[in-house]
Amino acid sequence: MKMPQLGLGTFRLQGQAAIDSVANGLELGYRHIDTAQIYGNETEVGQALAGSGVARGEVYLTTKIWTEHLAADKLAASLKDSLRKLHVEQVDLTLIHWPSPGAAVPVAESMQALLAARDAGLTGAIGISNFPVALMREAIAAVGADNIATNQIELHPYLQNRSVADFARAAGIHVTAYMPLAYGKVMSDPTIGEIARRYQATPAQVTLAWLLAKGYAVIPSSTKRENLAGNLRALGLVLDRDDSAAIDALDNGGRLVSPDFAPAWD
Where, by residue number, does the polypeptide cross the bilayer (predicted)? Predict the structure, then answer.
């Protein structure tokens, strides 16, 4: 199944809020759901999916392997546990969530274990997340670029991650933008606000449309049904060249996610 370009993220969603967000999203028409082991909500995502009435084959489901499970003797078992929580036999995409802190587990070991998990039928595709260029090179050397479905990275108007995105594009690796609305910062941005007024759209819709036009997948999240519905309308919004360029100019290296175990960023 091909990854739908606009998906529903579940970062920070817990308990009933996670169930409701995914259930509302599926009812509204989302067919791409993104979760992760460390989010602690795989069970809730699975519950919402099972209760949605939407056929499993219609939903592109992503999860991510946490750093504690990156060793070859742990990865597949942890993915099987994720499948149990999600109530599915296979996810569509499994990512290495973060490179191993301090390179404790080599990239090649994790990627080869992930490829083996795909070959065993646990996941339809594999990929990476939060990988800078140097580690992307290691991942490609380990399994080949054609086996890496995406690199999921923080990407929004204030952090456009151009070196990583350009490298990925040249290698034929798709990019998924997480935190696409910059924790909501785009909502009060005067440049984006002015563009939104002219298109009779919301700042969120404008920002998502800008990212979608670049070919990225985007996975915004929300607990509000009206915002989930509004975000979907970004699929029908096309910005002109000048407006896209104005958003391009907002890049200031404003990274929002950089834990102490993060790799050396580009």
Answer: none
In Å, what is the CA distance from 113 to each residue of 72, 119, 122, 249? 5, 10, 12, 40
Closest of 176, 145, 146, 142 to residue 62, by C-alpha = 176
**Residue where the block lists tokens 């985007």:** 218
| Residue 158 annotated to the active site | no
> What average pLDDT does range 192-203 have in this prediction?
98
- Reported as a pLDDT band with limits 50, 70 and 90, residue 1 is confident
* Distance (Å) of CA 130 to CA 178, 225, 240: 10, 29, 30
Enclosing H/E stretch for 152 = strand 150-154
Pairwise CA distance, residues 117 & 52, whole Å: 27
Instruction: Give the residue among 89, 147, 140, 154 at the shortest CA–CA distance from 115.
Output: 147
Of 207, 218, 214, whose CA–CA distance to 247 is shortest? 207
3 state DSSP class of 106:
coil
User: Who contacts 94 (Cβ-Cβ below 8 Å, separation ≥6)?
Assistant: 62, 63, 64, 65, 79, 114, 117, 118, 122, 123, 125, 126, 127
Rounded to 5°, angle at Cα 236 from 234 and 240: 90
* Prediction pTM value: 0.97
| List of domains in the chain | 8-183+217-222 (3.20.20.100)
User: d(Cα 109, Cα 97) in Å, to the nearest integer?
Assistant: 15
Q: Is 97 annotated as a binding residue?
A: yes
Cross-sheet strand order for the sheet of 93-96: 8-9, 32-34, 60-65, 93-96, 126-129, 150-154, 174-178, 217-218
H/E element holding 245?
A: helix 241-248
